[in-house]
């Protein structure tokens, strides 16, 4: 009986290892393409993109990419991760050299479908409110907490997390540009 159980476990483990070996490379390629598309979506067109760089702000490490035009930094794409309602919320935030937010893009999330997942909808009023948002002139906090950001209806936790991820990216931007 023990030998039979061992054989079944060995076969199952071998199958799982085989599936992982076959799918690891395509998954890595898909993640790379998604990252490249997110960077393109959050930065203004033109400019030469740098390789990935890192910066530490408030004890957290952020990955970022710099867009350079005419030898001067024009914008930054900063990857920010926070914990939302359903788990990690990974976004890419594009910030122009003047400190205004150009655009945001969701890399991955585990939010509730139909509620918090609305943060990933292209063209949604929630995401579009961040385009051109100036953190030096407006408060980057949801209105329920005294800020200037409209939350997603029935999804305040996700809205707070998304806004926090952007605020963290702004802190990283301020560290980069010091």
What does this structure look like?
Strands 1, 2, 3, 4, 5 and 6 form a 6-stranded antiparallel sheet that branches. The chain has helices at residues 2-42, 125-128, 156-176, and strands at 48-49, 53-57, 60-69, 72-83, 88-96, 101-108. The protein is of the alpha+beta class. The chain has 3 helices and 6 strands, in the order H-E-E-E-E-E-E-H-H.
Task: Provide key terms for this protein.
178 residues; alpha+beta; six-stranded antiparallel β-sheet; globular
Summarize the structure.
The chain has 178 residues and is an alpha+beta fold.
Layout of helices and strands, plus pairs?
Elements: H1 2-42, E1 48-49, E2 53-57, E3 60-69, E4 72-83, E5 88-96, E6 101-108, H2 125-128, H3 156-176
Antiparallel strand pairs: 1-3, 2-3, 3-4, 4-5, 5-6
Number of helices: 3
Helix content: 25-40%
Q: Please state the structural category.
A: alpha+beta
What share of the residues does DSSP label as strand, in percent?
Answer: 25-35%
Overall outline: globular
Major beta sheet summary:
6 strands, antiparallel
